[in-house]
Amino acid sequence: MTGRTTGFALHDLAVGYPARRGRPEHRVLTGLNAAAAPGDLTVLIGPNGAGKSTLLRTLTGLQPPLAGTVLLDGTDIRALTAAERARRLAVVLTERDLPPLLTAWEVAGLGRYQHTGFTGRLTEADEAAVAWALESAGALHLADRQATELSDGERQRVMVARALAQEPTAIVLDEPTAFLDVGSRVTVMGLLRRLARERSLTVIASTHDLELALRIADHVWLIGSDGRLRTGTPERLTIDGSLSAVFDGDDLAFDPAAGVFVPRPRATGTVRVTAGDPHRYLLERALARYSWRAVASGPADLEITVTEGGYLAEHRGERHRFPDIEALTAWARDRARQGAADREGEPCRRGGHARQGAPGGHRAPGREPDRRGEQIHETARRGR
């Protein structure tokens, strides 16, 4: 597995569907130029319907390009025979069902059949390769388990082992973290990055798990709804605004400082939090749920300070103290609800009864006022 320097390279690639039976050719993406290097985990991201799956099928030779070329280690993918492509390139699709009555060892062993000839029998060398693949994928302890009894995370490890057993130069994975819980998603993506580095593999994985991808990936292929392919490190695509350009919408925005996507409802107001991390980050995240937009400097509608005894909030010239973060966020939520009702030009009422106890003489519907953080009005009106 040495001496490889090129990985995948796309040159003026167009992908889509050729003309057939009276239907005209349909190009999904055109003019694609990109590279994925050995030793790197490259993630492919973009909105639904942008053409990610079509591009992956073209990369793996399952669908011919409409124009341009796909090179794998310097060779046009179309020039490879099926056997040559199977030895160089492993493909892991989003499969929930594995062949019945097979153990994890036997599933991983399927990756050796392009090396075994017409007999299909595994030699001692083949079995050693399967053992190495399972161990590399962290799945050797699953070898004797029935494949149908494996959890989603365990199953994905075995599928990665099957790909490794091929001893390819490149692995392409379609949604490898689909159906997995949070812990398993992190484990699988971390495994792919480690294998890319340790084995000098070219690894390309599509995913909708954007925040995890941006934390783990070495390189990103970003497809926008405009059909444009943007490439670079996660940091570069964050700084130049590419991620925001592709994913920002009326209800969602990319926060470049935190590297996460946040809801973007109509803002209640601005808030400045004076605290060290993790208090500052957690408070800003909690308040963002109720449409408070965090600012680092300048005037703010709400100012929060973490004190030894809890939290101090200053809002419209009044001070309120809270013993814990739950009491503070409950108060901020009520302020947001009241603000939304005021903007609509009607009192906050439920079932015709005025809500009492919340700001402006109202109470949140169906609940008593939150008195855990007895809100001490110090009536410190600014200017007094």
Write up this protein.
Helix content is 30%, strand content 25%. The chain is of the alpha/beta class. It folds into two domains: 240 residues, Rossmann fold (3-Layer(aba) Sandwich); 73 residues, 3-Layer(aba) Sandwich (Rossmann fold), CATH 3.40.50.800. It has a six-stranded mixed beta sheet with strand order 6-7-8-3-9-10, with helices on both faces. The chain has a five-stranded mixed beta sheet with strand order 14-13-15-16-17, with helices on one face. Strand 16 and strand 17 form a beta hairpin. Helix 4 packs across helix 5. It is elongated, with a radius of gyration of 27 Å. The termini are far apart. The relative contact order is 0.10.
Total of helices:
11
Strand order of the largest sheet: 6-7-8-3-9-10
Class derived from helix and strand content: alpha/beta
Question: Mind telling me the CATH class of the largest domain?
Answer: Alpha Beta
The CATH level-2 architecture of the largest domain is identified as: 3-Layer(aba) Sandwich
Major sheet characteristics = 6 strands, mixed
Low-pLDDT residue spans:
346-384
Rg of Cα set: 27 Å
CATH superfamily of the largest domain: P-loop containing nucleotide triphosphate hydrolases
Global outline: elongated
Chain-averaged pLDDT: 84
Number of strands: 19
How are the SSEs ordered, and which strands pair?
Layout (H helix, E strand, L loop, with lengths): L7 E10 L8 E11 L4 E5 L6 H8 L7 E6 L2 E2 L5 H7 E4 L11 H6 L14 H13 L15 H14 L4 E5 L7 H18 L2 E5 L3 H7 L2 E5 L5 E4 L1 H6 L2 H6 L4 E4 L4 E4 L5 E6 L4 H10 L3 E3 L7 E6 L2 E6 L2 E5 L2 H20 L4 E2 L2 E2 L30
Parallel strand pairs: 3-8, 3-9, 6-7, 7-8, 13-14, 13-15
Antiparallel strand pairs: 1-2, 1-4, 4-5, 9-10, 11-12, 15-16, 16-17, 18-19
Helix pairs in contact: 4-5
